[in-house]
């Protein structure tokens, strides 16, 4: 009887071991697939600007010099420069995410006031808002102290506010940045009254290279005109999410088609705060 019991126990243990092994293999396989997809997406994103640069150079070299004015050459160079800048942005973002994946990054943490970061980001993006004819404003910006890397936090905020402006083109439209506190959390809200994002895209929005327009086009199998995507890399939100997570925080999005989007970042405060009376009054 004892032997039978032992035998059974051993079978159970083998069974458990095999199941654990299966799970580990499945996780490894999924990780490999993600890495492969990431490499494929990265190559694709870099190939587009490279192709454009090649075409521009070929055209400039093969066209008869009599047809080309110095002004034409200058315009060609400017287009090449823009593509070059796009590639630099992609490569820098990829490097940052790769370092984040392998833990090879150092956060230079210090006491940071979120209202300073929010105000500075809004000021830096005012010209972009003007260019898009958007009103960019701030709501309540109370002093909220957190332990954080000012440069990274500012990058996160810039990515979110820049998106809100970029995707909310139109006279009379608004983007608003505000801060509130909820117990031990500091909350940054970036709200716009732009086109909004459909529910089916929301679960993937923070995935690397995910872009709403591109996804729609892929599914419908149409050709995508370059101009339909406002110069995005699809990496901005992944980076913003990584920065929020690396500060012990979280990032959320709420969006309604036709009504706009609300991105919310929650970060742990150094000291618990009593919510300000105007906390529930949103700025749009
Ligand atoms: P991108 O470089 O394309 O802006 P992001 O990762 O920053 O990449 O954003 C992913 C996608 O999420 C964007 O391509 C856009 O479709 C959508 N998106 C982000 N922010 C907004 C917003 N405020 N309003 C509408 N769509 C947005």
Automatic annotation (TrEMBL):
Cell compartment(s), UniProt: Membrane
Predominant localisation class: membrane
Reactions listed under catalytic activity: ATP + protein L-histidine = ADP + protein N-phospho-L-histidine
Domain Histidine kinase as annotated: residue spans: 41-271
E.C. code: 2.7.13.3
HAMP domain location: 1-33
One GO cellular component, as annotated: plasma membrane
Superkingdom as given in the UniProt entry: Bacteria
GO molecular function: phosphorelay sensor kinase activity
Keywords: Kinase, Membrane, Phosphoprotein, Transferase, Transmembrane, Transmembrane helix, Two-component regulatory system
Full protein name: histidine kinase
Entire protein: shown range: 220 to 503 of 504
């Amino acid at each position: 009887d004892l032997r039978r019991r032992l035998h059974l126990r051993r079978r159970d243990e083998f069974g458990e071991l095999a199941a654990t092994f299966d799970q580990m293999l499945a996780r490894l396989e999924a990780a490999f697939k993600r890495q492969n997809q990431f490499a494929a997406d990265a190559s694709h994103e870099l190939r587009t600007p490279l192709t454009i640069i090649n075409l521009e150079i070929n055209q400039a070299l093969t066209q008869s010099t009599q047809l080309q004015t110095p002004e034409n050459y200058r315009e060609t160079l400017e287009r090449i420069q823009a593509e070059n800048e796009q590639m630099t942005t992609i490569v820098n973002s990829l490097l940052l995410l790769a370092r984040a994946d392998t833990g090879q990054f150092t956060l230079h943490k210090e006491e940071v006031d979120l209202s300073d970061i929010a105000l500075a980001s809004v000021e830096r993006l005012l010209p972009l808002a003007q260019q898009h004819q958007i009103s960019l404003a701030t709501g309540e910006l109370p002093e909220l102290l957190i332990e954080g890397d000012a440069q990274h936090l500012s990058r996160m905020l810039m990515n979110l506010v820049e998106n809100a402006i970029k995707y909310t083109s139109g006279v009379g439209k608004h983007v608003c940045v505000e801060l509130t506190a909820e117990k031990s959390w500091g909350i940054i809200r970036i709200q716009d009254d732009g086109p909004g994002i459909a529910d089916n895209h929301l679960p993937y929005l923070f995935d690397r290279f995910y872009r709403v327009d591109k996804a729609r086009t892929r599914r419908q199998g149409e050709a995508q005109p370059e101009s339909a995507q406002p110069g995005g890399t699809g990496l901005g939100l992944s980076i913003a999410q990584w920065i929020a997570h690396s500060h012990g925080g979280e990032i959320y999005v709420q969006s309604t088609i036709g009504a706009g989007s609300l991105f919310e970042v929650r970060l742990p405060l150094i000291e618990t705060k009593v919510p300000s009376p105007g906390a529930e009054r949103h700025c749009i």
